[in-house]
Amino acid sequence: MNCNKKNVQTEKMIEIQCDDRWQVYHRLQALEISCCCHCYQPLTAQVTNATTAIQIWCVVKQATMPRQALIDWLENCWQIRATPEREW
After folding, report:
1. Number of folded domains in the chain?
2. Would you say 59 and 16 are in contact if contact means Cβ atoms under 8 Å apart?
3. Phi, psi values for residue 69, rounded to 5°
4. pLDDT 10s digits, 36-51
5. What is the domain range of residue 69?
6. How far is Cα 5 from Cα 75, in angstroms, rounded to an integer?
7. How many CA within 13 A on the CB side of residue 68?
8. Binning pLDDT at 50, 70 and 90, where does residue 9 land?
9. Which of 17, 20, 22, 28 has the fewest Cβ atoms within 10 angstroms?
10. Measured at the alpha carbon of residue 52, what is the angle toward residues 57 and 14, in degrees to the nearest 5?
């Protein structure tokens, strides 16, 4: 695996379990986020901007949260407050 260290200041280690680590690594690769994962080592990812940081956060949460917590979170996102329609 290729580990390009362009900017060491933006490289962050992500401490997650071994099984989840590879899932996160492959998803970050699919999102074209520079990352590196060696056996028995933490996953490292390069955070270049706020969008990348949010993407990494979302991928890690999706891989590590229990299924029911993800379902509850998604259902909460779908809830829309009923607001009265405005007359134009």
Report:
1. 1
2. no
3. -65, -40
4. 888 888 888 888 899 9
5. 8-78
6. 39
7. 0
8. very low
9. 17
10. 45
Give how far the C-alpha of residue 6 lies from the chain's centroid of Cα atoms, to the nearest Å: 21
Structural domain includes residue 85: no
Q: How far apart are CA 9 and CA 38, in angstroms?
A: 20
Q: What is the tens place of the pLDDT at every residue in 31-85? A: 999 998 888 888 888 888 999 999 999 999 999 899 999 898 888 887 755 345 5
| Contacts (Cβ under 8 Å, ≥6 apart) of 46 | 4, 6, 7, 10, 11, 12, 33, 34, 35, 52
Q: What is the CATH number of the domain that holds 73?
A: 3.30.70
Q: What is the pTM of this model?
A: 0.68
